[in-house]
Structures are given as structure tokens and as C-alpha cells.
Amino acid sequence: MRLLKLITHDVQDQVAQENFVRLQDFLTATPGLHNFRHMSVTIPQAAVNYKIPHKLGFIPLDIVQTSLTGAGALTWNYAEFDREFLDVTITGACVVRFFVGSHKEGV
């Protein structure tokens, strides 16, 4: 998976342009970070083996959950992840936000 190259030269505001340049530098310098994608998913009801498409093109190994709101509790079924879907078990409706990918040392 390639690192997204931000188009900074089209940003007219100098402060915003500098922030985008700094963000690009951070993404380039942070080992393994470019292998992650942030997602927010609304899950409408309790379910076992609920499939979430991730569009990464590889089997992700790492989840960094940033928030879970709503009535449901969530369990990540890592053994069921594949090249297309994440797999979760949930006890009720919820919204989950997370980073998904595979951290690699020395990338």
C-alpha cells in the first residue's frame, strides 16, 4: 500500500499549506503509520460475525479503537479478518471509530 501524497501546492492559504506540508512530513517519517486507515462505522443492532469492509487490500493485523458510543459492546474477531472484511461481535447498536492496518517496524 502506497502513502497518499497530499497536493499542497494548490492550497492558497499559507498557514493551511504549511500544515499540510507538516502532516505529509509526519506521515512519511512515522514508521508503519501509512499502513493504517481511520474508519467510523454505525452498527444498527446486535450481531455475531458482523462484516465491515475495510478496502485495504491485505489482511489487517492491528486495530486501534478510538471510541465506541451507543448501547453495544464490541469484540473484534481477529481470526476472522480477511482481505476484504473485518469481523466483529456486538451486543447492541453502536458507532465505533478506529484505525485499522498492520504496523511494520522499520518501514
What descriptive keywords fit this protein?
2 domains; elongated; 107 residues; 3-stranded antiparallel beta sheet; mainly beta; 1 helix
What number is the mean pLDDT? Answer: 84
What share of the residues lie within helices?
Answer: 10-25%
In DSSP terms, counting alpha (H) and pi (I) runs of 4 or more, how many helices? 1
The 3D shape can be described as elongated
Low-confidence stretches: none
Rg, Cα atoms, Å: 17 Å
Oligomer: single chain
The helix/strand series, from N terminus to C terminus, equals HEEEEEE
Arrangement of strands in the largest sheet: 1-6-3
Detailed description of the structure:
The chain is built from 1 helix and 6 strands, in the order αββββββ. The mean pLDDT is 84. It has one helix at residues 14-29; strands at 36-43, 47-53, 62-70, 74-76, 85-90, 94-101. It is 15% helix and 38% strand. It folds into 2 domains: 1-30; 37-101. Strand 4 (74-76) and strand 5 (85-90) form a beta hairpin. The N and C termini lie close together (12 Å). With 107 residues, it is mainly beta.
